[in-house]
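Reopening this one. Same input as before:
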Amino acid sequence: MSSEASYIRKRRLKAKALSFLFFLMRVFPVKRNKIVFAAFEGDGGFGCNPRYIAEELHRRNKDLEMVWLTHDINHGFPEYIRPVCDTKRNTAYHLSTAKVWVDNYRKPFGTLKRMGQLYIQTWHATIGFKAVGLFRGDAFPEIARIVSEWDSNLADYFLSNSEYCDRIYPKKLLYNGPTLRTGSPRCDIIVGDREKIRKEIRSRYGLSTDIKLLLYTPTFRSGNQTGKKAVTANISTVQFDRICDALSGKFGGEWRVMLRLHPQLAAIYEEMPLDERYDCTIDVSQADDTSELIAASDALITDYSSCAFDAMFGGIPVFLYADDIEDYVEDRGELMWKAEELPFSIATDNVGLENNIRLFDLEDYKTQKDDFMNKHGVCEDGHASERVADVIEKWIK
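Same output, byte for byte:
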């Protein structure tokens, strides 16, 4: 038996054990006003799409019981959210007794849903760069297919923000059910009035209100996942002092860089690994919510993270820095977009990145952004959380 086959067999046995635990929990009744949230397989704190749905629901109904499954209950949650350690027993109990589930990642393989429960899968990206699901071709592991199909069969709805997402979800997420084209709740704060959050983030990190902020958010590398999934981080080769000088020369003002690890990497690393530290950088990897940081930013640099599109929806300048693109494509599969289809410039070294900043034209960027959103039927108007809350409220009532 191959190592992959052996691993899949072990995962199936664990899934059967978890399903049995869920079956036992059916002795407890479903609570009509209970909602269970989770993010990034328990590694996420109060952030991403589930956060903004929870906030909107609480604004409407203070009597809801909201539980958040997490590996670290010391994350900063508001008083109306009850963080619960994401053990198998806790997960089985709370999911089995909740009327509604809201998650941005796959549920554990073996999870069972009861009649009358609503599962809204928000996913953690809508439009993105990375090949996902069947788009990965031979790089898509069999265990990932099995887990994806299990979760997709549980879901009542996946959230969508576009005609594009509706079209690719069957192949990307192995999901053929109905979508809710609400937009992305996590983008509401980005496409709306950003002045309040700009001031809050600068105050949080001891910065004056006139400081300009660049958010640097590389994605993680996870390998082909033929066995146990490993999430890894590469040391960045961006020379942030040079980039701050380039941004200052182009846009004026004094610039700082917020360094942001992916939430699943932040659970492993305290801060972003760098060959050297820079005076202009602030590590914000332990912040729970990336959307707040994007909304507070004046520009964003990433490699293959979908947050580039989130920032674009809000008109924030985005620069792509992909110095390992050949290795990344070999590992993950071809990217979902060709360079000429995107409003973003792409650099593979610091000289190219500096040049792209120098040549950036804001008006041209906004025109390309509008054209992109119109072409792909994108709905991001700052009211996604309200639309999702409407669906949940109707289900509960």
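So the earlier flakiness isn't reproducible anymore. For the record, The longest strand covers residues 31-38.
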